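Reopening: structure tokens for the zinc ion complex, inputs below.
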Amino acid sequence: MPSPDLLKFRTAIDTFRAKLEDECVVVRDSQGVEDLRNRFLSRKRGFVTLLFEELKNFETGEKPVAGQLVNDLKVEVQEKLSAVEKRLKTPAKTRAEIDLTLPGERRPWGAAHPLRLFQREIETIFLEMGFGIEDGPEIETDYYNFEALNFPPQHPARDDWDTLYINDDLLLRTHTSPVQIRVMEKCKPPIRIIIPGKVYRRETPDPTHVPMFFQVEGLVVDKGVTFAHLKGTLEYFLKRLFGDKIKVRFRPSFFPFTEPSAEVDMECLACGQKDPACRVCGGSGWKEILGSGLVDPQVFKNVNIDPELYSGWAFGMGIDRIAMFAFAVPDIRNFYENDLRFNRQFHLK
Ligand SMILES: [Zn+2]
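Re-run output (same inputs, fresh job):
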């Protein structure tokens, strides 16, 4: 059983050993090595010298054990210091010594995400038509997400837009429409914008639903804007995106923030309107692509734009849905799995 004195001695030696390790790493020149040598080995006050002096306090039985410990430390200090001196004398590799013929480190290549490809394409088409691109917060107040868009608190249409709430008033936006309100509050017409962005719904993931997805909305406000402008612009947009020959139809619908409203269908790309058993269009030959309509006068009143003077139209479209349709992707969750083998397959044009 070693005495408490010996245990203390051993701990002190371990502490000096750790100190030596730390200091050797930061030594930068021969003066630094000399300083270190003095602190550990100087004949008067060096750490090792002082430890040797303590040996006389040990009982005869423990003296050789303690002596061995200090001696080991002394050897270690000498070896470490020579190693540092050697390191300092070795010059750093010069440029000429780097072998440029060796193969470089290959970094794995990424790929533009299929949803991003589609979003960019959509942005390009609208930018060319003179639209601007707007952005807004993903955490919204009930007012901007619902009320200002004509969804009063008990409106049944809120059920279709069920979302994730942060508290009674804050929620994750269910559409990018709040940005339309924000833009109309701060800008005077004419307004011509699209708003691409992430939106949230309280959905359980399945092949056609995820709780977060991408949407793009558009808004035009000016004097004398009619349904004909809406129809002409959206038809042009879809033909640019899917080709001149594509068939498009407008179908009456309902949205709280537009009046009249229309859903836009496109001919089914999967079956070419020929397969009564088609799984993409359910045999109807048509696929719903986007919702649209003339801005409800009440929405204009909410943002202090005079509906007698101005009119406008808006549309909203799920980028994921369109990409699934265009790329024949059977499961929306594929977009969010970050599998490069999937992501690399897609190209536009
Ligand atoms: Zn079909």
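The mean pLDDT is 89. The first strand starts at residue 132 and ends at 133. Marking as resolved unless the reporter disagrees.
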